[in-house]
Specification:
By secondary structure, this protein is an alpha/beta fold. Helices cover 30% and strands 18% of the residues. The chain folds into 2 domains: 140 residues, Chitobiase, domain 2 (2-Layer Sandwich), CATH 3.30.379.10; 353 residues, TIM Barrel, CATH 3.20.20. The protein is built from 16 helices and 17 strands. A hairpin with a 2-residue loop joins strand 10 and strand 11. The structure holds acetamide.
């Protein structure tokens, strides 16, 4: 039976609430009267001859088919005037990550500036549907969307999180789960901290001991692990399908004990002995210049270093970074560069210059922690701010764009408060309001939005051992960071965010996310 215009049933209060509850908050969302119901007969239409659009539409149907029990499949068609249709299209007038979603009683029209924009539109559609859409068994409907228009695009191009897989190793399935959760909140970058004093986590065929020996333990002395190149490629592809770029980091010249333990020819002998002591080798001889160090499983920082005086250092950096670049379709390689407390300053500059140049010659853009601003950097290098504004400004003054990771706001390994069962607190306790209530463009004097490519929230893993731990520290704060990076500052409001966050509770539960039930959030009882 045809429903006459003007006599449309209105959307339910739940559907209207969902329309206004999206995280990150869209640039504009205007409710209209009416509702669209996805049914077994809904057609999902894509333009002919556009496999990239079809691929995103296929992701949408794969997302909604299990819980709805429908068997929707995207079909190529030019007909967009039919009723009960969801159409996917691209509109080059929009930015690549922008989308427009128009919902009426007849149709849902999703238009993206590119496939990424369409994918973000799908994540919005997902949040407009009832929470039980996240379940993988068939649920009762109706699958209702409130009518209205959402126009949306990100404020910052870089919306990232970092996972430290070096202090504790996390396998492929855990990283895929993390990618899935990042995608729901429109993140586009996953930085993997692949090496540190305690472990090396990526197979390098020309320097095999890095993974075989350097990857053989972790903080606390557990078994550690590493990604084979095949596993790593699989992760990169999995992330790419979700419009997430993986940025690999090899931290140098400090945070390198796992390297020095794997290859004695890289050990120039400079070290500050950590409190527990680590220079005694099993054979009773000291680990000095030219001899491997012991593996290290505690959590001090800044005691290890590569040295330019060791002839093997350049060969190591060139061969290792070449293999890493070959595994990296994305444009970036992160060279670390933080906390080089025992590296002589001149050598720090020399080595950092060298690593940046190697990355450049490999056709990639280098990124370094804020300390790398001291090197002879130029505009193409990116500086990742984490604690010292003077380094961020130095980077900006040398023409480098900044990635904002202020440790007091976005370090996801910081405890929520003194009772949090894991995590550290050297930067701050970070509750939900602290993670939300800041603006990258006004955080530090002299740094403006034009200097910033975006925001990244690192999860360091000294105290983080498994997926449950990861989720407890990451959720719900990551949703605050998502909004800081996506939504214009003028459109953000803490109380409004907290009420929308409370609305995410059912979805997080159905997704089995082990979130911290912050007392600041008005969760449903
Ligand atoms: C850092 O937190 N050492 C970058």
């Amino acid at each position: 039976m045809a429903v006459l215009t003007g006599c449309q049933p209105d959307a339910s209060p739940e559907a209207k609430k969902a329309f206004e509850g999206v995280i990150p908050k869209p640039v504009s969302a205007t409710l209209a009267k009416g509702r669209f119901e996805i049914t077994a007969k809904t057609q999902v239409l894509v333009p002919a001859g556009s496999p990239v659009v079809k691929a995103v539409a296929d992701q949408f149907t794969a997302l909604i088919n299990p819980a709805t029990g429908f068997n929707l499949a995207a079909a190529e068609s030019a007909a967009d005037d039919a009723a009960n249709v969801i159409t996917f299209s691209t509109d080059t007038a929009l930015g690549a990550e922008a989308y427009v979603l128009t919902i009426s009683s007849d149709s849902v029209k999703l238009s993206g500036g590119g496939p990424a924009g369409l994918f973000y539109g799908v994540q919005t559609l997902r949040q407009l549907l009832p929470d039980k859409i996240e379940l993988t068994s068939q649920q009762p409907g109706p699958w209702e969307l409130a009518a209205g228009t959402i126009r949306d695009q990100p404020t910052y191009a870089w919306r990232g999180s970092m996972l430290d897989v070096a202090r504790h190793f996390f396998g492929v399935e855990v990283v895929k789960r993390y990618i899935d959760l990042l995608a729901l909140y429109k993140f586009n970058t996953l930085h993997l901290h692949l090496s540190d004093d305690q472990g090396w986590r990526i197979e390098i065929k020309s320097w095999p001991n890095l993974a075989l020996h350097g990857g053989s333990t972790q903080v606390g002395g557990g078994a550690g692990g590493y990604y084979t190149q095949e596993q790593y490629k699989d992760l990169v592809a999995y992330a790419q399908q979700r419009f997430i770029t993986i940025v690999p980091e090899i931290d140098m010249p400090s945070h390198t004990n796992a390297i020095l333990a794997s290859y004695g020819e890289l050990n120039g002998g400079i070290t500050k002995v950590p409190k527990e002591g680590r220079i005694e080798l099993p054979d009773g001889k000291e680990s000095g210049k030219g001899r491997p160090t012991q593996l290290y499983t505690s959590t001090e920082v800044g005691f290890s270093t590569l040295q330019s005086s060791m002839p093997a250092t350049t060969k190591f950096a060139e061969e290792m970074l070449a293999e890493l670049a070959a595994l990296t379709p994305g444009p970036y390689i992160h060279i670390g560069g933080d906390e080089a407390a025992v590296t002589p300053h001149e050598d720090y500059i020399k080595l950092t210059n060298q690593f940046i140049e190697i990355v450049r010659k490999l056709g990639k853009t280098s990124i370094g922690w804020e300390e790398t601003a001291q090197a002879d950097i130029k505009g193409e290098h990116r500086v990742q701010y984490w604690t010292r504004a003077e380094f961020a400004k130095m980077g900006k003054d040398k023409g480098a764009k900044l990635i904002m990771s202020p440790s007091k706001r976005v370090y996801l390994d910081m405890q929520y408060d003194s009772n949090t069962r894991i995590g550290l607190n050297w930067a701050a306790y970070i509750e939900v309001d602290d993670a939300y209530n800041w603006d990258p463009a006004t955080l530090e004097a002299g740094i403006t939005q034009a200097d910033i490519v975006g925001v990244e929230a690192p999860l360091w893993s000294e105290t983080v051992e498994n997926l449950q731990d990861i989720e407890y520290l990451v959720f719900p704060r990551i949703t605050a960071i998502a909004e800081v990076a996506w939504t214009p500052a003028a459109a953000r409001n803490l109380d409004n965010y907290k009420s929308r966050l409370a609305q995410q509770e059912g979805r997080l539960k159905y997704l089995n996310v082990n979130y911290y039930p912050s007392p600041q959030v008005p969760w449903a009882k």
